[in-house]
Amino acid sequence: MKRNVPLYFMALLAVAVMGYSSRRSAMDLDATPRITVTYNDLISARRFNSHAQNYTTLLLEDEKGILYVGARGAIFSLNSSNIADSSHRTVEWEVSPEMQAMCLKKGKNNKTECYNHVKLLQRLNATHLYACGTYAFHPLCTYIDTNNFTLPSHFEEGKEKCPYDPAHGYTGLIVDGSLYTATRYEFRSLPDIRRNRYQRILKTEESPLHWLNDADFVASVLVRESVRSPVGDDDKIYYFFTERAGEETTSIFDKAQAPRVARVARVCKNDVGGKKILQRKWTSFTKARLACYIPYYEVLKDVYSLDSGDWRSTVFYAIFTLSAQWRSMEVSAVCRYNISEVRAAFLGPYMEYQDSSRKWSQYTGDVPVPRPGSCITNRARKSGYNSSQDLPNNVLDFIKLHPLMYEEVKPVDGAPLLVKKNAIYTQVAVDRVRGLDGQVYNVLFLGTGNGWIHKAVVIRSMVHIIEEIQAFKNLQPVENLVISKQQRSLYVGAQSGVLQLPLSTCKRYLSCFDCILARDPYCGWDGESCRELTEMLDRSLLIQDMLHGSVGCGNDSAQALAAQKNRTVLRGDDVLLPCEQASNLAQATWLVNGTQVLAEDREGHFRLGVDGLLVTDTQMEYSGEYRCYAEENGLRTLVAAYTLSVLREQLVPQPLPTLSYPSGHAPSHAYEDMRFIYIAVITMLGGLCLVLTVVLLYVSCLQKRKGKYSLGVPKASSVELQTVSSNCMGKGSQEEEEGEDLGLFPDGCLQIIPGEATTLASPSKEAPPAPPPPPPPLPMEFTNGIPTLPNMLRKMNGNSYMLLRQNEEPCTSPLYNSFTEELSKILEKRKHTQLVEKLDESSV
Ligand SMILES: *[C@@H]1O[C@H](CO)[C@@H](O)[C@H](O)[C@H]1NC(C)=O
Ligand SMILES: *[C@@H]1O[C@H](CO)[C@@H](O)[C@H](O)[C@H]1NC(C)=O
Ligand SMILES: *[C@@H]1O[C@H](CO)[C@@H](O)[C@H](O)[C@H]1NC(C)=O
Ligand SMILES: *[C@@H]1O[C@H](CO)[C@@H](O)[C@H](O)[C@H]1NC(C)=O
Ligand SMILES: *[C@@H]1O[C@H](CO)[C@@H](O)[C@H](O)[C@H]1NC(C)=O
Ligand SMILES: *[C@@H]1O[C@H](CO)[C@@H](O)[C@H](O)[C@H]1NC(C)=O
Ligand SMILES: *[C@@H]1O[C@H](CO)[C@@H](O)[C@H](O)[C@H]1NC(C)=O
Ligand SMILES: *[C@@H]1O[C@H](CO)[C@@H](O)[C@H](O)[C@H]1NC(C)=O
Ligand SMILES: *[C@@H]1O[C@H](CO)[C@@H](O)[C@H](O)[C@H]1NC(C)=O
Ligand SMILES: *[C@@H]1O[C@H](CO)[C@@H](O)[C@H](O)[C@H]1NC(C)=O
């Protein structure tokens, strides 16, 4: 039986995936970010970091223009308009050496645990912040005066407010002076939702039923449901977490293997506990299941609450990843929940645990009045129940045994908004933006486990990923995301620092088509450039098309961008006509003399690649007009245009007059100059060989980093070799570049057509010079190919090519072979990813 459990999981997963993709197009399963912005291409990014690490806690006070940051051993106050300016203030809050020694004695990790990780940072009153830190497994809290921003000498015990272990899921809020926290506080204690300070201290019940089972908290949200409530309802705090499912008792699950489910729980703000029963315990705690994509096999990562001013419009955005048994698979899902549906679940039937059958099932008996788990409302007050202490015993007894609701909360439209392969989302923040069409669009900022941000917009019930942004150079999870409306900034907290990014960078879009294809609700085309809507007083002339991303630009406004270039080659040579597509969603179309080059035409002399058209073994009749268009969303724009001229044979060497000289050189020195030039050319060639060798060494070192790829090297264009000659030194090839003089440019000894390989991988100092490891085996189960495959690599699927030729010349370096190996390995991997992609579409 046990043996079959994984099979069952697999089947279930397959069914879930299938069910999902039958409702949606297969494309949705791997929504592709339209553009990829690597670390070096970031615009107006500002960074803050100091000696500290783990910048995990962010508190934005937008009106004051301050971003407070809780890190390991310090709290910072930053100017939110520019976090990198020098005006920041710091409260050093390190662990005392004695406490650190005690922590080490307990056997804790001296690299991470025996420090003071600031986990809570909340505004307490007009003058003070309340802060709690793990303080080397001895949590402490304190009040920080925000005027002089210094560490006070007095501290409070933090053991019921802050976890001991910095790695435990934790959420904390201060609401009207009371501190609401949820976590597993001590090492061996049960997880708990607690209220401290001001109001009466309250906890969750642990007997006879545990209200929480091994819960891992991710977020808590205050919803002010008392505001203009016709029934005199109370404000509520909603908790989001993943826990062991008690209710699922079908035979396939052992108790120990009980699956984890996502939950939403809530308590009332004015709950004060019961008098005799549930004394100092919540009388309003109830919880319900949150379903998103694959119930039971998903882990909740983060929740963001969004409303338009009225709590009734509240929408929760939740992100999920697959649970641990699917570690080899990277899939994330985004679901959206409507507050009215969450409330409906809490108003529905309860679940009950039957001791006899040891099963949870729907409770069908009578429900006492006032309704257990509801807040004190006008109706209860009318019946004389002014506070939870007045509640009758039968209500309290009922609550003790029925914390779980029968109905699950389903996402809006019954399906995830987005399912994304090859990404682990860790954080989400959402902004509301009014587009030019007057509609409000929700823009999601999704942080990933490897330091990228996906910016996506919800259009009806579909998600379009506008861009993926590499926020950090080194792989590290995004740990916090905060949006400032005031500064129009996104703050990203992570291990190595805090990053401030503009919510939009419209100027990145260079043409009208680019601007509308982006479907960025912050951006519009003003006739000359792509502009931020907020910067424009007069929006009447702006162009934006959120719904379709295609309408509004004239017919030929994009054509002007592409300059006509001339290319001249010798007959028999190969030539690459580059054509870089800015968008990952665009498809390249080539017209030669007005006739389209078909991708399937593989036998011919044209090879279509993602970054250009390769013409091999050129013949005289290949001369002509070559035009590269980008096709996206039904729009076709000219990206590059070339006039190719094929010469019958090499021109008689006549380098002298063609190499440009500063005028005034005496012609009598020509011969010596020529010799000098030949020597120079030879030296240059030697240099080129050397440079190539270094590049090869570098690239091959990079490739030795097993498994993971990361980005960080400039784009392929920097190693563009446009003409590929079949010979090395012997035969040069002519190159005519934008009207420059015809020059003799013998190619280097190595001809590489730039493929994607050159854009892979970031420098790695620890790469060993050992022989390259064998390629990683293709995982057996449903895999997504290589884990954390950057999207740039995705371009290699399909039409890309990689061409490498060895020369007769002896100048090949010993590294050359390993480079070839690396390249063929990449090709091999590419095949695999291609295979898997296809598998996903057809068989899954
Ligand atoms: C803090 O950052 C370090 C790396 O800088 C990391 O190894 C550690 O896990 C982080 N700790 C927490 C609690 O996030
Ligand atoms: C933040 O910086 C801006 C400009 O650099 C300045 O005008 C503003 O006063 C600063 N805010 C604070 C809170 O220091
Ligand atoms: C942690 O402990 C190891 C060995 O016990 C020691 O080498 C290292 O220096 C310690 N690190 C810190 C930061 O104390
Ligand atoms: C804020 O709280 C702190 C700590 O309890 C207290 O000392 C301070 O007086 C309070 N400030 C105001 C304005 O109430
Ligand atoms: C900070 O201000 C508080 C009162 O506002 C005062 O009690 C405390 O001594 C001040 N700390 C320093 C270091 O000036
Ligand atoms: C929530 O759902 C209800 C019913 O499905 C719908 O009427 C309401 O407009 C939704 N609210 C929001 C904010 O989406
Ligand atoms: C509830 O409050 C009302 C008015 O505040 C009071 O008249 C009534 O006696 C209270 N009832 C109880 C049971 O305390
Ligand atoms: C675009 O071209 C089509 C035909 O090619 C023409 O009918 C239309 O008027 C043109 N639109 C603009 C804005 O130039
Ligand atoms: C393109 O047209 C020119 C002149 O009409 C012709 O010589 C050439 O062969 C054509 N090229 C191709 C690839 O058809
Ligand atoms: C390309 O060559 C043609 C003549 O063959 C010339 O008229 C044109 O100006 C050249 N274009 C460029 C951009 O140099």
TrEMBL record:
Residues 34-503 form the Sema domain. The keyword Glycoprotein applies. Residues 558-645 form the Ig-like domain. It is found in: Membrane. The chain crosses the membrane at residues 676-699. Residues 1-22 form the signal peptide. Keywords: Disulfide bond, Glycoprotein, Immunoglobulin domain, Membrane, Signal, Transmembrane, Transmembrane helix. InterPro entries: Ig-like_dom, Ig-like_dom_sf, Ig-like_fold, Ig_sub, Immunoglobulin_dom, Plexin_repeat, PSI, Semap_dom. Residues 766-779 have a biased composition (Pro residues). Residues 760-782 are annotated as: Disordered. The keyword DNA damage does not apply. Belongs to the semaphorin family. PANTHER family: SEMAPHORIN (PTHR11036), SEMAPHORIN-4G (PTHR11036:SF17). This is Semaphorin-4G isoform X1. It comes from Pogona vitticeps.
